[in-house]
Write a structure and sequence with these properties.
Four Helix Bundle (Hemerythrin (Met), subunit A), mainly alpha, Arc Repressor Mutant, subunit A, 212 residues, 2 strands
């Protein structure tokens, strides 16, 4: 049960369901998952150790602040690690997986501007990226990438209002086209452009609101 609760809590963060500035409690998570507080406490300990959650006030938990220095460090690391995963996926990703990537692009294209639709986009975006990364065949790479996403994915909530979602899907299409063609250079360039564009938007957001 502890592992299951941890995975559920981790998915909330990876999918961007917990936004920066949003406060939650152990009891809130316990009620959401339909469990007692004990396994939630264990999950919280693991997630705080992974720098995915932090105590914000009293018993309230939230997303840790993202500084410019931390963003730059995460981005620099992600550009290398996620590009490596994409390069390893070349020639290995299945036709079924490629078809699913096409479906996810259409789903992301159809996302409206309301908050719930934004959540749909963020979940689809995560599924899109990790479907490619899983094709690398490396559980080690996946674990590293997940640890990086835990620290930055809640901040993807800021990307929609800056128009990044549409730009990102342009890069997604380029990734799929390159994967189909077995073109490692173009696939890596597309994922790096996707990550860099998002990082530039977040950089601007943090400059405007340094308290985040």
């Amino acid at each position: 049960m502890q592992d299951d609760v941890y995975r559920q809590a981790r998915d909330l963060i990876l999918n961007g369901d917990l936004s920066p500035g949003q406060s939650i409690t152990i009891q809130w998570l316990a009620d959401a998952f339909g469990v007692s507080a004990m396994p939630v406490r264990e999950a919280i300990l693991r997630l705080t150790a992974e720098k995915a959650l932090t105590v914000v006030a009293g018993r309230s938990l939230g997303i840790p602040p993202l500084t410019l220095e931390k963003l730059n460090d995460l981005t620099r690391t992600r550009l290398e690690i996620e590009a490596l995963a994409v390069s390893w996926a070349i020639g290995k990703i299945s036709p079924t997986a490629l078809e699913r990537l096409d479906e996810l692009i259409i789903e992301m294209d159809n996302v409206a501007s309301d908050r719930e639709a934004r959540k749909i986009y963020l979940r689809a975006n995560r599924e899109f990226h990790f479907a490619i990364y899983r094709a690398s065949g490396s559980d080690t790479l996946i674990a590293i990438i997940e640890s990086l996403w835990l620290q930055v994915s809640p901040y993807f909530n800021y990307l929609h209002e800056r128009g990044n979602f549409a730009i990102s899907n342009t890069h997604h299409r380029a990734m799929v086209e390159a994967l189909r063609a077995g073109d490692s250079t173009s696939a890596v360039a597309a994922v790096r452009a996707d990550l860099a564009d998002a990082a530039n938007v977040l950089h601007s957001v943090l400059l405007e609101a340094p308290a985040h």
